[in-house]
Amino acid sequence: MGKSSPDLFRRRALWIALTIMIVFTLSYLSHQRHEGLPSVTLPAVKPAQETEMVKPVEAEEDMAQTEQMEQLEMMEPEPTWEFVVGRDDLNYGLTDEQCDIAFPLLYEELDRAREHLVNLNRTIKEKDIHVDRKGTYDGRTHGEFQVMIHDGELYVIKEVHGEPDRSRGLAALANMYRAISSMGDARRLIPNIEFTFDIEDIAMEGEHNKERIRWTWARPKDNRWLWPMPDFDGWSYPDDGVASYVQFREDVAELETTFPRGWYDKPTQLSWRGSFAQNGDLRRALVKAATGKSWSDVKPIDWHDRKDLMAMQDFCKFQFVAHTEGNSWSGRLRYLHVCDSVPIIHKLSYSAHYYPLLVASGPNQNYVEVNRNFSDLVPKMEELLADPERARVIAAESTRVFRDRYLTPAAEACYWRRMFRTWRSVMDFEPKTHYFHKDGTKKRRGVSWERFSFRQEKSFEHGFFVEDKIKDEEPE
Ligand SMILES: *[C@@H]1O[C@H](CO)[C@@H](O)[C@H](O)[C@H]1NC(C)=O
Ligand SMILES: *[C@@H]1O[C@H](CO)[C@@H](O)[C@H](O)[C@H]1NC(C)=O
């Protein structure tokens, strides 16, 4: 059967539409390639055979333009959602699909932790989930929380009071609660899980069991049993001068507007303040290496006299910011990462949840790495000062990757939810909502977060002090 002319016309329109789409896609792709970290928001690529089929088309269908446009609209794939900073960075409720599109490289620590167990053919059993028992470690008691999520509700099963202040635990729980309750249908979308987290800087200190599984702020790079969760600084810095993470980001954004030419307008100096009380040898090495240099605004501080203190946001006023580890990781880095400045970081011993994204060389370099004894600080600073354009590009890459993407509050909520799901994928038990007594009666396990965050040890209720009776005791 011969083709009727409307058929022929439709086929030609189809070719034109395809050609336009492919040219558009290719030019978009080649543009994207110059923009750093690959495969973040690439649009769907057309299958190869369609490209081969494209043929030149004569421009004889001008009058049919309207119809072509209609066809184009019909054929366009679903518009690809893209993460837009300024619009989405405070969106705690991105869907799983949006989280994957926006933050494809965020989950490396979780995949690593999971893989470690899978490689050992190991799962998380009910008996793995408990706070430390007496005698299992030396030294001071760590603060710990045993937590359950059930039907999208957050419960604290047990809290152990220990080092350091419990407010860190409350901040983590508040962060989790926000990541859960931002889901419209948390009961369906958040898996039922149970886990334990340790709030100490060095979560495994004093512990005899090398295979102790905990959620922690950071892990030594050679400990594969710990699961890094976003640190409490993502809720708030524990110092009044800094306030909440979100507020700090706003304050820095405002500060940055005072530099009309951005990075170029900042002093060509390296800023750092810190106490020698933690990690003293390492920090003294930094101060020693920088002393007397025209590019140095590096000074130690003593919390007793508080001389030479610098407000956290004021580090951002410099082209270069130095970071040092504290007792273990230091939560200060995520704050320095909000600055449009070049981070100078010594080789790290600890990994926090987003550290796999640090890139020390190549076109996507986003910080400058120096030795732990800072022996190469001077030559590396001199190199940067001699090539300001290279330094500026590193600062720009840092803000693009960290401030404007992977360290946004939206990214952190995605990480929490992925953490719940990844943990669930290696759990082989169902969390129990109740204890069952021998006589057939039952008692709820734990305390809902709403009540827990509201409670005090003693409270002035009904006109007199009452002891809180909501402590959880497992029946013998
Ligand atoms: C993994 O563990 C399961 C249950 O403990 C066992 O049945 C299975 O044989 C193990 N597989 C391997 C490859 O060791
Ligand atoms: C500093 O550290 C580097 C790298 O670890 C090492 O090669 C060098 O010998 C150290 N220098 C001093 C003075 O200790």
How are the elements arranged and paired?
Layout: H1 5-33, H2 48-52, H3 65-75, H4 96-102, H5 108-119, E1 144-150, E2 153-160, H6 167-181, H7 186-189, E3 193-198, E4 215-216, E5 218-220, E6 227-228, H8 245-256, E7 270-274, H9 280-290, E8 296-300, E9 320-323, H10 332-336, E10 342-346, E11 350-352, E12 368-370, H11 377-386, H12 388-406, H13 409-426, E13 434-436, E14 442-444, E15 447-448, H14 449-452, E16 458-461, E17 464-467
Parallel strand pairs: 4-6, 7-8, 7-9, 9-10, 10-12
Antiparallel strand pairs: 1-2, 1-3, 2-15, 5-11, 13-14, 16-17
Helix pairs in contact: 1-3, 5-13, 6-13
One 2-acetamido-2-deoxy-beta-D-glucopyranose is lined by residues 371, 373, 375.
Protein name: Glycosyl transferase CAP10 domain-containing protein
Transmembrane segments: 12-29
InterPro entries: CAP10, O-Glucosyltr/Glycosyltrsf_90
Helix content: 25-40%
Distance between the termini: 85 Å
The low-confidence parts are: 1-6, 29-60
Biggest sheet details: 5 strands, parallel
Q: Count of helices?
A: 14
Radius of gyration: 27 Å
Mean of pLDDT: 87
How many runs of DSSP E, i.e. beta strands?
A: 17
Q: Approximately what portion of the residues adopt beta-strand conformation? A: 5-15%
Structural class: alpha/beta
Net shape? globular
* Distinct small molecules: 2-acetamido-2-deoxy-beta-D-glucopyranose
Q: What CATH first level of the domain at 245-352 and 355-406 would be assigned?
A: Alpha Beta
Main β-sheet, spatial strand arrangement? 8-7-9-10-12
